[in-house]
Amino acid sequence: MQNQSVVTEFILLGLSQNPHVQKIEFVIFLSIYIGTLSGNGLIVVTIFSSPALLCSPMYFFLAFLSFLDVCLSSVIVPKMSIDCLYEKKTISLGGCLTQIFAGHFFAGAEIIVLTAMAFDRYVAICKPLHYSSIMNPKLCGILIGVAWIGGFLHSTIQIAFISQLPFCGPNIIDHFLCDLFPLLKLACTDTSVFGLMVVANSGFFCTLIFSILLVSYGIILFTLRNYSTEGQRKALSTCGSHITVVLLFFVPCIFEYVRPPTSFSFDKMVSVFYTVLPTFFNPMIYTFRNKDVKTAIGKLWNKLIIISDKK
């Protein structure tokens, strides 16, 4: 299909068309973005400034997850916040495709990192005697490389489909961001096959990974029967944080993509739950339940105070 697009920009309707509500949204989402940058940035700096944490695969993956959270949030939230100040919210065709590519790229990489973190906990709990030999620096580096490559391939497939569609009007997207299903509705051609490809690529991808994670944590919980009460408490504390993050990200994501290519009135709110909120809550979920991270943050804070006093 040759690209016969005549639409050069799209109009985003946002979460609300009420000017007063939009001002409240601006304050809320700007605060969320600042909190996302601060929380995830603190985790990255803390882990990389602590050799003991950086040498641990669990915290190495956590630092990378926080970095991806910053990237994913930066693709969506800044424009979403600024648009709340304007009556007419526009985005160019190229900008729309770029946002789709970047969003799916970082989200796809994050899914693989979450899987790597689950594998790390599986090895630590189910094969503790072989943990050091299995989760070596080389494997950790390979898993991070797989995350980058997997995210890139996933996003490239999506954009290869969507960029072939002709857009000749209308150009109004009833959403606060450019995403696949809202954009498919505007194409001047039959998009049923493209819709199924989106479901197969995004929906099946999320469902498969989520199923693997559920099975792995089922095995972990079964293995914990043989642990002491104290060992169970520590393992469940670590796994509980990860399970919370997985549910917060995957449940709305699966709802959004594992279905026929159609739209519902509450889709925009569901999108907030897997694009905006997880990146904001992840630092709090991991920090508040993790003694090692809190201790490292305290040491980093003390170092900064000492440096400040010397100046």
Short structural description:
The chain is mainly alpha-helical and 311 residues long. It is 75% helix and 3% strand.
Sum up the structure in keywords.
311 residues, 3% strand, Rhopdopsin 7-helix transmembrane proteins, three-stranded mixed sheet, disordered N terminus, 3 strands
Structural class: mainly alpha
For the largest beta-sheet, the strand count, sense and barrel status come to: 3 strands, mixed
Overall structural domain count: 1
* Average pLDDT score: 85
Order of helices and strands: EHHHEHHHEHHHHHH
How far apart the termini lie comes to: 65 Å
Radius of gyration: 21 Å
Q: How does CATH name the architecture?
A: Up-down Bundle
Task: Examine the coordinates and then state which fold CATH places here, giving the name of the CATH topology.
Answer: Rhopdopsin 7-helix transmembrane proteins
Q: Give the spatial strand order of the biggest sheet.
A: 2-1-3
Task: Write out the CATH superfamily name.
Answer: Rhodopsin 7-helix transmembrane proteins
Task: Specify the number of helices.
Answer: 12
Strand segment tally: 3
